[in-house]
Amino acid sequence: MLQGIRHIRAFLAVARLGSFTRAASELHVSQPALTVQIRQLEESLRVRLFDRNKRQVVLTQVGRDLLPSLAQVLTDLESVMSASQDLANLRRGSVSVATLPSVAAGLLPMAIRRFAADYPDIAVHVSDVVAERTLQLVKAEEVDFGIGSRLVPDRDIEVVDFLSDQLCVFFPEDHPLAKRPLPVLRDVIAYPLILTARGTSVRTLVDRALEKEDLEITLACEANYMSTAVSLVRAGLGVSILPESAVHAAACEGIGMAAIQTAGLTRKIGIIRKRDRSLSPAAERFIEVLKEAAKVPVAHFTTAAGEEVSPRPGRVPKPT
Fold first, then answer.
1. What phi, psi does 274 have (nearest 5°)?
2. Residue 294 in contact with residue 195, Cβ under 8 Å?
3. Could you tell me the pTM of the whole model?
4. SUPFAM superfamilies in the record, alphabetically (predicted)?
5. Is the model's pLDDT at 93 over the cut of 70?
6. Domains, the chain, ranges and CATH?
7. Which are the contacts of 270, defined by CB distance < 8 A and separation ≥ 6?
């Protein structure tokens, strides 16, 4: 493309100035180099563009006919080059990401704020969806990448480990579980459970752990959103198994939590990409910003209610 631009630019300069010498001076190339460029353009087009002798250079009829078209081609090519440079240098563009609601409510806003400060002209589009939907959007290339959990092996995607999220039991502050700082799954299922819907990464982990432990439960309610599950807990309808990061997605005043000490109840969250697909420079850079933001301790995050979140199992902090 660059060579094509140089050749067309040389043709237009000679046509406008009527001189190889003046055109070469304007373009800061030697006259022999300019002559080669014009000859190569004529050979590629298979036409003669100039009639020349020792005294003058004039456009042929074909050259006059092609002049407006080649001028437009140069304008279009320069526009393409400028746009591609803007994209490569992160001066424009967009990033689309599908992510688990807990990440969307906690880590993602901080990362977007950092990214927007450095790249104000790049838009970030977020779809907060369950794990299964995240995979669908990535595989359909409707988003650049996803942040979620791989529920089953899938050859169409690549997952790079990003975060770990311990599953915890959430309960009213005056609940008997408040006296068991290190509960196991068997302790938790002694009470009616409020679980997330099937197809979510959390529900998949819980169901697998229940099957492995051969445990039966009393299912009080299912909820699509963690904020709903926490509200049902507050209403006294049961206890809920949710990721530690749920404290970002829900108002947890009056709620206690404790990490469940049963193996297999840690949710692995990764960066999910379509296999053998390249990301735009903007998407690659946004992933770097996400990783940088993830290094900030969870205790430095605050919920919408203004409360500081503790990463340790125990009582969920109240707003200050």
1. -70, 130
2. no
3. 0.66
4. Periplasmic binding protein-like II, Winged helix' DNA-binding domain
5. yes
6. 2-88 (1.10.10.10), 93-315 (3.40.190.290)
7. 147, 148, 149, 150, 159, 160, 161, 162, 163
